[in-house]
Amino acid sequence: MHVGTNHWALLVINIKEKEFHVYDSLRNKDRRDIPQYVEELRRYMKGKHIDSENWSLRYPDSCPQQGSEDDYAIFTCKYMECLARRDTQGFPFSQDDMPTVRAKFALHFIKAYFNAQ
């Protein structure tokens, strides 16, 4: 989700735990737009006959935090990658890994581009 004017964070619907999880590399719980995104998801889920009215909003403790001002998108992508792989035990990355992560993402996109040609 686009938070504020220049930040990205990941909002996850955890159906098993009946919670919304926010993975935010700045862990700013005072942002007014995050509850707005949650309300939008609640309306969507209600249309799918899923009652999420009493579901809580949680910020998992194991969420790595960024140390620079420009890595929020890379952190958000890494959260998605780890969650998709179910590799969330402490999230195996940190700010120190960002140069390597950026290079791997760039290589992935370059390969995908040339494979599509």
Automatic annotation (TrEMBL):
An example Gene Ontology biological process: protein desumoylation
Single GO MF annotation: deSUMOylase activity
Cross-referenced Pfam families: Peptidase_C48
SUPFAM superfamilies (alphabetical): Cysteine proteinases
Ubiquitin-like protease family profile domain span: 1-83
GO CC list: nucleus
Annotated family: Belongs to the peptidase C48 family.
Name of the protein described by the UniProt record: Ubiquitin-like protease family profile domain-containing protein
Organism: Colocasia esculenta
